[in-house]
Sequence to fold (502 residues):
Amino acid sequence: MEIVVTNNSITKISCDTLIIHIFKGVVEQNEYTKLIDNALSGHISNIISENSDCSKYGETTIIHTFGILNAKHVVLLGMGEKESLSIDKIRALSGIVARVIKKIHSISIAMIPCDLVTEKNDIQKIAQALLEGVILGMYQFNYYKTNKPENADIRTLFLIENDANNASFLKKGIHNAAIISEKVNLARDLVNHPAQYMTPTKMAICAQEIAQLSNVEFSVLEKEDMEKENMHALLAVTRGSVQPPKMIVIKYMGDRTSKQITAFVGKGVTFDSGGISIKPSLNMGEMKSDMAGGAAVLGAMAAIGKLKPQINIIGLIPCTENMPDGNAFKPGDVIYSMSGKTIEIITTDAEGRLILADAITYANKLGATQIIDIATLTGACVVALGNVASGLITNNSTLCQQVLHAAEDAGEKMWELPNFPEYKEQLKGTIADLKNSGGRMAGAITAGSFIEEFVENTPWVHIDIAGTAYIEKEEGYKVKGATGVATRTLIQLALNISQHDS
Ligand code: BES
Ligand code: MN
Ligand code: ZN
Fold:
């Protein structure tokens, strides 16, 4: 998609669709709407007075201009109340618009970002959100369709801006948005591929390609390397699978003067059948998405390599399948972890925390000074927060606040769950140090608390994306299937930390 920042007049611009923002309860129209309204002999005012619903948040009204304007259609986009217009709403609205105009086969559209500027929302952020919304909202996963839907993607996006100073900020926003949303869509692709294709081996191949394109270092630990490192928790999970495990390591060193290293650790279970503690068959196919944490880390590292913030980051993705087999690990088994702690297996379906335990011990070994792990970890988190918010657990409130701020900046909802020491009681092993499940009560918290046992004293935040990584129906800029959640938060966190330090 080509993005053109233009100072062309709104009435002259030649495109398929021009987007006009309609705010709720605003009687006096702004200059842009007035110009178009006049050109269309008052049609827009008529529509607004006949149907005030057209200003409702997310409402779209398509008007054909029959050659009166150079734009073939005008779409009135209902914005809701101006005061409550957030950056994330702008992103969601442009996602909705992107899909609506696809239906009318528009391949060139024009938008007016400066129309959305308020005290809270500056032009750079607005432009970034508009473009992210369009690219994320248009996303479709057609890899396996033999009869691919006709390609009616937007080819040109005009952003009308008359002020040269504004235009330069706008361009910065566009630059960031193009990189970030492309990498979110990359994370979505990785998750949407079926498990039969997206095996640990394939993930490692993709990671290598992605690393090359983004100029970040790539390496991988093979099964033999894991044996040498005593990663017995990860190795236990992998035993039931014919697919060899891979520990993907991606390094981005953007600040050689600093010893600080942030580790992003993403769960990469390419298929979670539950293992011997097998899951019910209903919707089991969705467990191809159990590597969404790993996908978010890959997407984020790819973007970070392009955006080049001044910060050091290691991305670690332990990849394996969790399958039942004669050789699989069993409930009742006691396994070692890389840390030396022993774990009694209550259920082989609590596998994510096992592979994360070893990956986190390894992150510490590589010198991580702070750790963020991202995982589709518990059904309990889905019960607690639905598909609206991801759940956080931490041992360090400063880092947790940084993650929450980054999430807010990126427009991803995250919510901290309490990490009271009392929860540890549920994890005490009978014949080993720890149990891998603390039972049903507070399941999302005890899962995080289990991981905490392996972080030593490194500041750490755990993000449970079980409810947010994969959705059943489209909403705003999110489409059905993989959402690419947490990719944007991780990127934003890297950018925020880098600004903070310099
Ligand atoms: N991958 C699942 C968690 C999950 C559930 C992700 C629903 C996405 C949607 C995880 O490995 C799992 O099976 N967790 C168990 C843990 C329990 C057995 C302690 C769960 O939540 O049921
Ligand atoms: Mn599981
Ligand atoms: Zn799992």
Q: What stands out?
A: The longest helix spans residues 164-192. The chain has a mean pLDDT of 96. The pocket of zinc ion (ligand 3) is lined by residues 269, 272, 290, 351-352 (CB under 6 Å).
